[in-house]
Structure formats: structure tokens, C-alpha cells
Design brief:
2 strands, mainly alpha, 78% helix, two-stranded antiparallel sheet
């Protein structure tokens, strides 16, 4: 009887191992591949559209361009490697130690640079929509350029620690010191999951409140709806209004797709799931990969969000297609 029970348990364990290996592989081949292709194309197109004269001098557009450039490193140094590792069984950890260090250094630094540029864009929309003249002065191309440079320098210097702490051991690229690994994991959980969501919620609600208040003001002046400049203090132009919508949608996508990984990471840390073995370890790997891919998906959906949200963005994208690809001349309409 005991032998039969043991055999059934072994067969069940074997089936679960095969199932989760299959799910891990399919997830990487499909979702990671989608993120890699759509993300790279979208990031390049986002940079091209926002570099057009209609957006070029907008601080919010500058933050989006900086974030998109950082996202290219995420897609090519993180998503691509994850795809070939789990989807096509390429032994990416059987490489020299320096490759392991550089890969994770680029991943962590580019992820946080992309994330904080979105946070800066959210803060810029809050300042831009404010009726306070002093606060609106913070929404300027000069300040945006300085913050982008400072953001890059700070995080490139901060994550130099990755070059020291991460190494290859037993064909795994990880932080081998348990104490350092625990503290770093908790830090990353807070900095990557909880802290950005709090900031984005804060600036998002403040921006919505500012816009709501601005709509309640009675303005006797007639405003040209097609104007792309702010003609009355506290009143947003059509372009600025659409930038608000684009960012608010991006913030919503960010929170929806980041919350699963944040929640699972807390659960994983609390119950010590990283020490699991057998099919349970594979189940943990599958869920961890899936939820982490949702974080990548946030950035991959950026261009699709912008193209669906903003009429001006769509219009400029169509103009680029017509002029640069189809070689057609745009005839201005009166």
C-alpha cells in the first residue's frame, strides 16, 4: 500500500514538474517575446514622435523620451536574456563573471532611471496644472534637462554596488551573501513597488484636483481650442491636456501591472518561498517570472497607450509615416 502511495506521489510530482517547466517556457516564449518586440519598436517610435517640434520643448515629453531610452536597455538586457534563458534553455549563467555583473548593473540602473522619469513627468504635470505661478515655474525644459541628467548620474553611481555583490555561483547569477541579498531584496521591493506607487498616486490625485479646479473657473476670454500654448494662467492648452491624459493612463497601467509583483514579493518573503524545492520551486519560479514580466509589460505598453490616448500624438505619428516612409507631402489645411 505504501509503495503504491509513494509511486502515485512520485508520478504526480513528475507531472507537476513537467507542467511548470512547460508554463515557464511558454510564458517566456510568448510574453517575453511580445514585450521584447513591441517594447523596442514602441520605445523608438515614442522617442521619434516626442522629438517632433509640437512636443520637443515640453518638459513632460523630455521625461518620456528619457524613460523610453532607458527602456531600450531593459528590453535588450533583461527581457531578451530572460526570454532566451527560460524560453529556449540558453545557459546565460554559464558565462564569465563580468557578463553577469554588467547585465544586472544595466538592468537595475536602467529600470530605476526609466521609472523615476515617469515619476518626474507626473510631478511636472502637477506643477503645470497648478494655479500657483511659482509652482508652474518648475515645469520648464531647463529643470527637466537637469533632473534627467541628475537622475542618470545618481542611479549609475548607486548601483555600482551590483558590480561588487553579484557573481556567478553554481551556474546562478545572484548576490551570494545571504544578509546582503535579504536587505537588497527588501530595498528593491520598496523602491520598485511601494514607493513609486505612492508618489504616482500623490501627484496623480493632485493633478486631477488641479484640472478639476481649473475647469470650474469662469473665464470670459475665448480660448482657441487648437492653440498649443498656455494662453491664460492656470488654463491648460489642448496639447497639455492630452499630455495629462497620456500620463494618467500610464500611471494607471503602472499601478495595475506592478501591484501583483509587489504583493507576491511580500508574500514570497514572508513565507520564505525562495527555499522551496521540486515542483513547488518551479511553481514559485513561474509565478515570479510572470509577475515580473508584468513590470516589463508596463514599459512595453507605453507607445500603445499614447497612440490610443492622444489625438495629437496620433496625428504626429501619421505625419511621420507619411513624410518619412511614404514620402508624401503634408498639405496644411486652413
Amino acid at each position: 500500500m505504501s509503495n503504491t502511495t509513494t509511486t502515485v506521489a512520485i508520478d504526480r510530482e513528475t507531472q507537476l514538474i513537467a507542467l511548470f517547466n512547460f508554463l515557464i517556457q511558454i510564458n517566456s516564449q510568448c510574453l517575453d517575446c511580445f514585450i521584447f518586440i513591441i517594447g523596442n519598436i514602441g520605445a523608438v517610435l515614442t522617442c521619434i514622435v516626442f522629438y517632433q517640434p509640437a512636443f520637443r520643448k515640453s518638459p513632460c515629453a523630455m521625461y518620456f523620451i528619457a524613460s523610453s531610452i532607458a527602456q531600450l536597455f531593459i528590453f535588450n538586457c533583461a527581457t531578451f536574456i530572460r526570454m532566451i534563458q527560460y524560453g529556449y534553455s540558453v545557459p546565460v549563467n554559464s558565462v564569465p563573471s563580468w557578463f553577469c555583473k554588467i547585465r544586472f548593473y544595466i538592468f537595475y540602473s536602467s529600470t530605476v532611471i526609466a521609472r523615476y522619469n515617469i515619476i518626474f513627468a507626473s510631478a511636472d504635470r502637477y506643477a503645470c496644472s497648478s494655479s500657483d505661478v511659482r509652482l508652474r515655474r518648475w515645469s520648464s525644459p531647463k529643470i527637466a534637462f537637469r533632473l534627467i541628467i541628475i537622475n542618470i548620474i545618481i542611479w549609475l553611481l548607486f548601483y555600482i554596488q551590483i558590480l561588487i555583490t553579484i557573481d556567478v555561483k553554481n551556474n546562478k547569477c545572484r548576490i551570494n551573501d545571504v544578509t546582503i541579498s535579504t536587505y537588497f531584496y527588501l530595498y528593491f521591493l520598496i523602491e520598485n513597488g511601494i514607493f513609486p506607487i505612492v508618489l504616482l498616486l500623490f501627484f496623480g490625485f493632485r493633478t486631477i484636483r488641479n484640472i478639476h479646479r481649473s475647469k470650474q473657473r469662469i473665464l470670459p476670454n475665448v480660448i482657441n481650442e487648437r492653440s498649443e500654448t498656455m494662453t491664460i494662467p492656470g488654463r491648460l492648452s489642448r496639447k497639455e491636456t492630452q499630455l495629462h491624459k497620456m500620463l494618467i493612463n500610464q500611471v494607471i497601467i503602472y499601478m495595475i501591472l506592478n501591484i501583483p509583483y509587489t504583493v507576491y514579493s511580500v508574500y514570497r518573503t514572508y513565507f520564505g518561498l525562495s527555499s522551496l524545492t521540486g515542483s513547488y520551486a518551479l511553481m514559485d519560479t513561474f509565478l515570479n517570472n510572470l509577475f515580473f514580466d508584468l513590470v516589463y509589460l508596463v514599459y512595453a505598453l507605453t507607445f500603445l497607450n499614447f497612440i490610443l490616448t492622444s489625438n495629437i500624438f496620433r496625428q504626429k505619428f501619421k505625419e511621420i509615416i507619411q513624410i518619412k516612409i511614404l514620402r508624401r507631402r503634408i498639405v496644411p489645411t486652413n
